[in-house]
Amino acid sequence: MRKNVLKFLVIGAAALASIASAAPGWFIQTDVNQDFRYRLQEDTQDIYKVADDSMKTAHRYRERIRYRLGLTSKINEEFTAGARLATGALNNTKSVTQTLGDSGSTNPFGNQGINLDQAYLSYAPKWVPEVTGKFKAIIGKFDLKEGIYTTTTVAWDSNISLEGKNLNYNYKNLGVEGLDLFANVGSYVLNHVNGISAYSSGTGLGVNANLEVQQLGLKWKILRDYSLETAYTQYAVPFYDNTVISYFGDKAANQIAAKIGANLSVPYFEKVALLYDDFTNPNDNKDNKAKAYGLEFGTAKVAKLGDYSLRYLNRRLEKNLGWDFTDDAHSTKNTEGEQITLVLGLVENVSFTVDYYKFKGIDDTDRDGNDLSDSAKAILNSSSTRFEINVKF
Questions:
Q1: Which stretches of 247-343 are DSSP H helices?
Q2: What is the CA angle 128-131-136, rounded to 5?
Q3: Origin, by domain of life (predicted)?
Q4: Which of 354, 308, 44, 290 is nearest to 153 (CA)?
Q5: Is the dihedral of CA 197, 199, 202, 204 positive or negative?
Q6: Within its chain, how far is the Cα of 29 from the centroid?
């Protein structure tokens, strides 16, 4: 019996080796990444009761899951293709989380949705001499960090997948050892307009609303253990049509992001960083910013029991911001507050996270200068507490 088992194992191993040797190179160089998250979430919001002129705090409790399956294939030395499936609703670009029981009381235990979250092709030419720097072009639907460098989520929710194209440039050791220059030039489709249909109906030629992005940044590693990262970004929608999109007209919004970090030889305090992020919408002269600043520290990485990361952010979204891609947990304008995030390592590839947000209103008037009603002022006061188990496999 044992000889037969060994025989079958040898045959099976030989067959797998034969298949592997015959498979194309891109198949061998395909990486599969999956992650799962389970979240318990409590949200609170102040509600003004007109009937008895009282203020109450309403609570909402949810159990939520997130699953993502990603594939990345190195086609050859220059081309890479990737795709990712994820849970979440089609009409919410800033969340890939699915609420349990969200299928409704008439359809308990209903199937949850899964969507195409990313699909892209990137090209990094090898024929360009290294002395001139490195270029990388990417097209399709891809991760935010492929096209825009940020330090917080005050302007961009990290779940957003950009749609369009981006050209990235990197130049290392810009006259000083460890000083690197990077740049991004991207064009992202915000809204598709059928120009043929618009012209036929007499409503105009019709053009797509695209977000044009130009970014220039530096990353400086100082004396091995210290670092500075910063980037200046401009955003514009050239073919502006306020019936399609209404962010900041024909003007360019701008963002400044910065991070100062240090690696320390102190147990359980191995890294520390200061964070800063400032986004300005030029369409208004005041109350037109999204701001965040804070501190993060912890172990070098969160990989096992005893590892941790702690982040504190002070966040502010002013009432005339006119920008819709901010963190899903902090998207209400005219609010300010704080976020505290603690990540604890449990075992390899498994971590536990506590994420807490608390916000209050900034101004008692609306964008037009009119006084807010008691109800409108009340809903600016909110909080969210999230307990999460995260698994990567």
A1: none
A2: 45
A3: Bacteria
A4: 290
A5: positive
A6: 26
The count of residues in the chain is 393
Q: Which residue has the tokens 């096209």?
A: 147
Token pair belonging to 72: 């990345």
Strand partners, 258: 230, 276
DSSP run (H or E) holding 151? none
Residue recorded with tokens 């819709």: 324
Most confident of 60-64, 129-133, 250-254, 362-366: 60-64
User: In this structure, are residues 188 and 150 in contact, taking their beta carbons and an 8 Å threshold?
Assistant: no
Phi-psi region of 47 (alpha: psi -120 to 50; beta: other; left: phi over 0): beta
The residue extents of the domains of the chain are: 31-392
pTM: 0.86
Instruction: Outline where 69-182 has alpha helix (H).
Output: none
Rg over alpha carbons for the chain, rounded to the nearest Å, is: 25
Q: Which residue has the tokens 């002129």?
A: 53
pLDDT digits (tens, 9 = 90+) for 254-306: 999 999 999 998 999 999 999 999 999 887 678 999 999 999 999 999 999 99
Contact by Cβ (8 Å): 86, 161: no
Cα–Cα dist 295/298, whole Å = 11
Distances (CA, A) of 223 to 80, 123, 263: 34, 33, 11
Q: How far is CA 14 from CA 8, 17, 273, in A?
A: 10, 5, 51
CB under 8 Å to 68, separation ≥6 — which residues?
Answer: 33, 34, 35, 84, 85, 86, 87, 96, 117
Residue 214 in 3-state DSSP?
A: strand
Which residue in 48, 77, 46, 74 sits closest to 59, CA to CA? 46
In whole angstroms, give the CA distance from residue 251 to residue 235: 8
Torsion of CA 98, 58, 332, 297, to 10 degrees: -70
Phi-psi region of 71 (alpha: psi -120 to 50; beta: other; left: phi over 0): beta
Strand partners, 315: 292, 337
Q: How many CA atoms lie within 13 A of 68 on its CB side?
A: 19
In the numeric block, which tokens belong to residue 149? Answer: 């460098």
For 2-35, write each residue's pLDDT tens digit.
Answer: 555 556 556 655 655 555 555 666 667 899 999 9
326 close to 291: Cβ distance less than 8 angstroms: no
| CA–CA gap between residue 309 and residue 365 (Å, rounded) | 38
